[in-house]
Each structure stands twice: as C-alpha cells, then as structure tokens.
Amino acid sequence: MTTSDSETPSLERYSRQIKFAGIGEDGQRKLLASKVTLCGVGALGTVLANHLVRAGVGRVRIVDRDFIEIHNLQRQVLFDEQDVADNLPKAEAAARKLRKINSAVEIEPVVTDIDHTNILELVSDADLILDGTDNFEVRYLINDAAIKLGKPWVYGGCIGSHGQTMTILPGETPCLRCVIESSPPPGMAPTCETAGVLGPAISMVASYQAVEAFKILTGQTHLINRNLIFIDVWENIHKSFKIAKLKDQLDCPCCKRRQFDWLEGKMGSHTTTLCGRNAVQVAHRLSERLDFEQLSRNLEGLGPVTFNRFMLRFTADGHEFTVFPDGRAIIKGTNDVEKARTLYAKYIGH
To answer: 286 and 211 in one domain?
Structure first.
C-alpha cells in the first residue's frame, strides 16, 4: 500500500508501531478506523486507555461511575493531584489527559454506572469491549452483552500482587461464565482494601489486554491468547491455563443456552459496596438530571455544600455524600447497603 504525502503526517506518530511486522501500515489504518468501549477507567482502565490512545485506536468510549481520590494515584496512571483537587469524575479527567496525548483520537467520556438498562447502548457500536472494572457484576453484564451481540471482549482482574486475563470471542472461545461460573459471595474473597494492590501487577495485566485488543482490531484473531493467563509479580509466577475445551464440555447458560440473566436484570443489584472505600454506591437512575443548585439550597442547613457540573458533595450524619447528575450517590463511611439506602432517601429524597 502506498501513502500520499497528505496522509503521511497522520501516520508519522505511529511509525515505530508500523515498523513492527505484526501491525504494519494496514494494521495501523485498521486501528485508526476502530471503536472501543472501555468499561471502567480506574487502575486497569487507565493503563488500557493510555495504550489505546497512544496506539491510535480511532474512537474510545470511556465509561466510569466514580470520581478520583488521593489513594487512586498510586496505580491509576492518568490522574494527578490536581484532578483530585478539581473534583473530577474519572471518565472526564481521563478524557482530558488523553486528548492531550493524542488529539486525533475521538474520546467520549461517559460518567455513569454500567447496569442492565444501559450496557447494550454503551457497547452496541463498538468493535471491541475492554474490561477495566473492579467487580464481577459488571463483568457478567459485559459477558452477556458481548455474547448476545457477538462482540469480542477482553477480561482482566487484579488484586494484591496477582492478576489474570482471558480473551472472549463469541462462538469461538469459552465465555466468562464457562470459566468462572459465578462470582464469590460478598466477604468471601480478598478486596483491594484487605489485600491491597501493586501497580506493576495492574500494568502487566492491562498490557496483556491491550495487545489482545490490537490483535482483534487488526483482524488477526487467529493470534489471540486462548488460555487463561495468571501472573503473580511478587511470587514470580506466570501460568497459562488451557480452557478452550470448556466451550464444548460445558452446558453454559450464557454462550450455549443464551440465557442472559445479568442483561435481563435477573442477577445483580443496584447498590454496590465499593472496593477499598468503606463506601456504598446507590444507583437511582432518573429520567431527568438532578438540579444541583436546587439540591444545594435544600441541603444548605447541613453545612458546606460544593458542586460543579459533574458532582455535588456534602456531609451529613458523619457520612460524605458524592452525588452525580444521573441520581447516583456514593456514600462514604459505611459498608452497610441498607443504611446507605436510608441515608440516600433521607437527604436526596428520590
């Protein structure tokens, strides 16, 4: 393929990637024409977004429900102290950084909670779905949507010093439910609060995911990893578990029987205890966006209320509330779901 002088400048920034035989100019053009939905832009998600945008993936939709706190900076590589001071949602802060990295890439930040009511809309026009989340409920939602729509996706997860990843091609490979039938019950598995998490483990897993994304987006699915990869950076462990046969051996309710329990709202909840935060998210999706000016007037007797167009914050009953325009709230200072719901109803009133 020849390149005209007018096209050369747009490809020059990718010259070292183009020189790699696995990508080449044809592969680079496919990346530029691709669209990815990245679910979550925390630890894994920031590394993934950074790789995608620097590599020239043409359109990247970033979906995240959360805002930035100081403890995020140890591992969430797109954020800095100013983002914390500015009270920015992660999706918006990431988009601002990514646009400075590569202005030619279209970045679409979406500040919302991924649930069964919106997952199909968020991924339906994507060529690939990437998992940058920190909980299995969203992963099973992604899995249902991907299988239903026939879209590839790449799972990744980390805790402590170890992590794992696998690539799902609907109809070709086992899906997430083939390999991990159900998530562990609350309190039965370590979290980043109880076990911590190392940044290098995050970077390694996300880098595996990104390379798989490049293979898929350049049309080289025959090269994807068809095993479950497990690494432990502290114990110097790298294992690859052969899972391909599970697709034919199991009567999977999702990819074999096409039962989409999470997508249909039969599984999961609308209230989530947040990893490592002593906080609960209450999702109360509204038909209209909250009026922060009116809500701040309603709450002014409680003490300082601060807000911008992204979020509103106040403290009541010893709990810190962060409220989003779509009606969601993160209530810090409790892991009790019922208490969080009561506090939400008391102060926000919907």
So the answer is: no
Sign of torsion over alpha carbons 99, 101, 103, 104: negative
Residue 322's pLDDT is what?
93
Looking at the fold, whether 183 and 127 belong to one and the same domain comes out as yes
Q: Note the pLDDT of residue 9.
A: 47
Close Cβ partners of 158 (under 8 Å, ≥ 6 residues apart):
43, 44, 197, 201, 202, 205
* pLDDT, position 187: 41
Predicted confidence (pLDDT) per residue in 28-56, tens digit? 999 999 999 999 999 999 999 999 999 99
Ranges under pLDDT 70 in the chain: 1-9, 184-194, 268-276, 284-287, 349-350
DSSP-based three-state secondary structure for 111: strand
pTM above 0.90, yes or no: no
- What is the C-alpha separation between 308 and 312, in angstroms, rounded? 7
191 and 66 share one domain? yes
pLDDT digits (tens, 9 = 90+) for 179-235: 998 876 544 456 665 578 999 999 999 999 999 999 999 999 999 999 999 999 999
Question: 271-309: string of b/e by CB count within 10 Å (b at 16+)?
Answer: ebbbebbebbbbbbeeeeebebeebbeebeeeeebebee
Q: What gap in Å lies between CA 308 and CA 252, rounded to an integer?
A: 46
**Shared-domain flag, residues 96 and 140:** yes
Least Cα distance to 233 among 210, 203, 275 occurs for 203
The whole domain housing 169 covers: 34-249
CB 344 within 8 A of CB 324: no
Pair 97, 234 in one domain: yes
Could you please report the per-residue DSSP string of 277-291?
Answer: TTEEEE----SS---
**Which positions are annotated as active-site residues?**
192
Residue 15: name the closest of 69, 55, 60 by CA: 55
Q: What share of the chain is helix, strand, coil (3-state, %, to 5)?
A: 35, 20, 40
d(CA 92, CA 89): 5
